[in-house]
Amino acid sequence: MGIFYHKEQPQGCNTYSLKKYVDRKRVTFITITIILTIITICLILYYIVDTSLRLNNQKQLLAQIERLQEEQEEKKETKINKNTQIKEIKIKQNNIPTLTEVGKENLKNIYQSETKRAFLTFDDGPSINTKGILDILKANEIKATFFVLGSQVETFTETTNRIYNEGHYIANHGYTHKYENIYQTPEQVLNEYNLCNQIVANAIQVPEYNSHLFRFPGGSVGGKYAQIKNQAISILEQNNILYIDWNSLTGDSEKTNPTPEYIMKNLQKTTNNKNSVIVLMHDAQAKQITVDTLQLVIDYLRNEGYEFKSFYEMIK
């Protein structure tokens, strides 16, 4: 009996098994890669979304901070504006003339004084020239008196407010300055005063304003309408309205184009040997010469020893 040898084939070495093994490895690798890719994408998306949300929150926070700051600034500005308005109201209220018996007596004796004093007065304005006059008065720290026309106040409301707010005395020169209108009757003089006064009160937004001080166009005495003026004085006094003329002048309205020399000569002549002077000047539309010579007038009066006074000091 012969011996027969059977040779067995090694396991795991066939082509099919090897391929299957390799495919399994490949699937595992691809799966892991896909999972990692998905995770990476998710992380990136999360980072993008998170960053976007953070930036958005930061923008909202900054916007809130800006709004809070703006609100604080608005409150601060409102408070400042309110304080300013209160201050302006107080100034306006303090500048309302109050006529007293002492004031009436002071006006009667206005031309007598033991010391040298000067009242600068300007008629027929306000106009384009008034601003220049106010600038000079402010630079010299002088308070003056403006006998305004109602018709001019209507045109120069802002300038009228500046006159009042800077502490100058707004007195009354009637509405029209036309003699045939204002001197029709004694009562018409009062009507012109009241109309001008109302226009001033409206312009400066002080309903209760009353200057209690009038200057007759052309002066209170003499001329064609002397009798009507005299009768009007009584009517004005009955309504607590005083009147005032002048005892010194520059002559700025006496010529079409007066020279500075002419102005100063008139001033020197009409202030000579007087302790209390009420200086007549004009801030009408055509009176640029008044602006040009005002500093000369001030310097001369100061050098002569005059102290500048306001009608507030007389009437209040």
Please, could you describe this protein's structure?
57% of the residues lie in helices and 9% in strands. It has 316 residues and is an alpha/beta fold. The strands form two sheets. Strands 1, 2, 3, 6, 7 and 8 form a six-stranded parallel sheet that branches. The chain is rod-shaped and about 145 Å long. The protein starts with 14 loop residues before the first helix and ends with a helix.
- Number of helical elements: 11
User: Which geometry do the CA atoms define?
Assistant: rod-shaped
Residues in β-strands, percent: 5-15%
Biggest sheet layout: 6 strands, parallel
Overall radius of gyration: 45 Å
What is the compact description of this entry?
57% of the residues lie in helices and 9% in strands.
Attribute tags:
9% strand, 316 residues, disordered N terminus, 11 helices, 57% helix, rod-shaped
Topology:
Blueprint: H1 15-94, H2 101-108, E1 117-123, H3 130-139, E2 145-148, H4 150-155, H5 157-165, E3 169-172, H6 179-182, H7 186-204, E4 213-214, H8 226-238, E5 242-243, E6 248-249, H9 260-271, E7 276-282, H10 288-303, E8 307-308, H11 312-315
Parallel strand pairs: 1-2, 1-7, 1-8, 2-3, 4-5, 6-7
